[in-house]
Structure formats: C-alpha cells, structure tokens
Amino acid sequence: MRQPWRVAVVGGGIAGLAAAVRLRDRAPAGTEITVYEQSGSLGGKLRTGELAGQPVEFGAESFLMRDPTGAESAAVALARRLGLAEKIVHPTVGQAALVIDGGLRPIPGGTLVGVPGDLDRVTTVARPAADADTDGGRPLVGPDADVSVGALVRSRFGDEVVERLVDPLLGGVYAGRADDLSLVTTMPALARAARVEHTLVGAVRAAQAAAPRAPGAPVFGTLAGGLSTLVEAAVTASGATVRRDAAVRELTATGTGWRLTVGPTRDPEMVDVDAVVLAVPARPAARLLAGPAPVVAAGVGVLDYASVALVTMVLPQPRLPELSGFLVPSTEGLLIKAATFFTTKWGHLRRPDGLALVRASVGRYGEEAHLQRPDADLAATVHRELSAVLGTPLPAPVDGHVQRWGGALPQYAPGHADRLAAARTALRATHPTLVLAGAGYDGVGIPVCVRSGETAAEEIITALGGSAR
User: Fold this and answer.
1) What pLDDT, in 10s, does the model give residues 115-158?
2) Which parts of 204-279 are beta strand (E)?
3) How many CA atoms does the CB half-sphere of 190 hold within 13 Å?
4) Which CATH number does the domain housing residue 276 bear?
5) Does 359 fall in a domain?
6) Can you tell me whether residue 411 is helix, strand or coil?
C-alpha cells in the first residue's frame, strides 16, 4: 500500500463531510482526503440563507439531541468536536398542531411519531378503532419481517389514526405516506418492540421505555448563526481538498484501489485513489456501482425519492398562534403539508421589529406535479392557505424565498434494511475499500447521516490497514 493513503469522498453533504473529519482524526498522518461535490455548494440539505438581514434555513432546520440509547446524538458530538457546542440552541416553543377539519388542534402527547401508546390521549384528533388491538398470543411482527407503518397501525388502530396522526407526522419527515414506508427503517425502536409485544399499545410503550428522556431535556437543537456553520467547520477540520462542480462520472477498480473519472465527458480527469466513500443518493450511487458491482447497483438503485419545496416568507407583525408550527394531513386537501413559525419556535430568531419568519413545506411523494408551478404561484398559494388555516388574513410578505429540493427525501419501502445489508455484505466481500454513506442507506436526519459518514470512514480505515492513532 502506498503511503500516504489517498481517499476520495464522493458527495459533499453532511455524511461525506463527517466521513472526511473522521478520516482526518483517525487515519494515519498525511492521509490525502479529497471531497468531490458535483454542485457548487457543500452541505447537501444543510443550507443557511438570509432574508431581511437574518440567517434562515433553506434546508434542514434542526437535529435530535439524543440518540436512541439516550446518549448525545452524533450531530451533537460532531458539533462538540468542531468547537460549536456553545452555539447549540433549543426551541423555546415546542407545542405543534395538526390541521383537522380546517382548524388547528394540538398534537397529542405520548405518541411515537404519531403512533399512540395511550388511545384516550388522541381522541381530540382521531377516533381509534374499538377493540382492534387485541392480544393474539404472538408478537405483532415476525423475527425477520418488515411491514409498512400504515399497514400495522391500520390493522390495530384504524384508518383515522393513520390518516390524521401518523401520516402527517411521518410525512413531515419523509414527505411520504405511512402505507408505503418501512417500519424497520423509519421506526426501528417500534419495530424491535413489535417483535416481542403482542399489542401495538404495548409495543409503543416498550419502545418509549427503552429510550427514556429526562423531563424537560430538549429534544431538538440547532446552531445560532445557522447550520451552514457546521458545514464550514467540518470542511476546515477535515483538512480535505474540496473540489466543487466536480462530478464523478465513473468508478473503475484498479489493482491497488480505484480510478475516478471526473468532470465533463469531452475533457475528463482521471484520479487514482486507495479508497472511496460514496456519499451520494442511491440513484447516482447505483450508476457509479454499475461497473464494479452491478448486483449491488441493482439493489441500491430501487430506492425512490420524494421532491419538496420550502417556501419561506418574512411577514410584518402577523398574528400567529403560540405554536412551533403545524402539520397537515393529506385528507385536508391543502398544498402545504407542514408549516414552521421560525421566530416563534426559536427564541434566538425573534426580532424587535416584529418581523416574523414563516416557512411552509410543499410536496408529497407521488404529487410532484404540484411542484411544477412557478415560484410566485407556490408562494401565493402558501400565503393563501396559511391565512385560511390561521383564520385571519396574513400581511403581505416583505421578503421571501422558494427552495426546491428535487429528489431529496428517500422513500424506504418495506425490506429496505435487508436490501441494504445485502448490498453492504457484497461490497465488503468484493470491494472493501468502497463504502456507502448517507441518507439513502441509513435514514434521514442530521445525526443519522453524521453517524453513517463516520462509520464509513472507520470501515475505510480498517480496510486500508487500521488506524495509526
């Protein structure tokens, strides 16, 4: 093996950047790390912009503070590693609402992503099926089975709980539908409990008990100044060479590693490296894997994605409820699926001049045609629907922005975890210096993506001969 190592990280989102930081921390001194990003911007779905002179997120808004074990999340640990821990801030208003029959009702407590552990607590928004969640003498889900969240919850609690509660909460994260999304991938704690418990109420309570949270402890955090500060700090800490507008078009296995074909077809650049972290979405990953690992490519490439648009408006002194925002069931017939009152939810964003930042999310899986509207049309529709939900005309915005995220949110169908495990097993057996990382494989959310990138870096280090530190 030549020294120093040369490692390519394909994809400059937070998973790729977390991999680069971990490589710098754990790989032998002198390791050459290059990040290839096909766009002109790093950070993937982490993008902080500015409206009315104030930072505002045009992508991901926050991260979980704790992981499923109760320890600090990988996002918090990375922020600490990068010297940003003191910049972590938390919501000052946590209560959100659901739009039910055109009006706002508080989201009931005691649920697990909308799946109730106490049926009496959700009757303000949905009527659970009577006596359907009975003990049949066996676990809800078989030891190796995966089902859709919707199928499981409908069979136990009925349609209204899915449509009015679970669907909008899952949709707020994935822009997908509960009937299509894998229980194992989107709700792993509930899946584990469902392999033991005989009722869904029992499974929810068991999952909640397995991940206790200290009373009053914040669930979410973000960074004062915006999440792009995390991106910038990660680039600096990694010491990586960053190649923007550098599309990797082909991967070819060599006798000692990998050859990357980078740049335009008419004038390609060939780069030889020892190992590759492939931190791009599933479809571009499948294209790059088609040559060296066609079976893996076929398994990875089946993952579909949803597209969304985020419409942010700056409103002068609007009358807003004391809520962090609201979610919209698809049965309400609105274009918007969620709204966040940024300057209500986040105390550090409140302004003395009374300007309010409001952001709405538009787009559900399978409804991409709605996103073909021009920006001005989307913004006008969002303004009109927000006014209707709030029951009062909102003032005209003084500033605004429409951010489109095409193919942004993975739609994990049942069986995703098994397909991914098979793909990774095949890669380890045939190409151990080529590793997958990112939301397309391990789940959405900043902590999951950070952990995915870090794990990929550790696999590369092991494959190349182990850490020298």
Assistant:
1) 999 999 999 999 999 888 999 999 999 999 999 999 999 999 99
2) 220-223, 241-243, 248-253, 258-262, 269-273, 275-278
3) 24
4) 3.50.50.60
5) no
6) strand
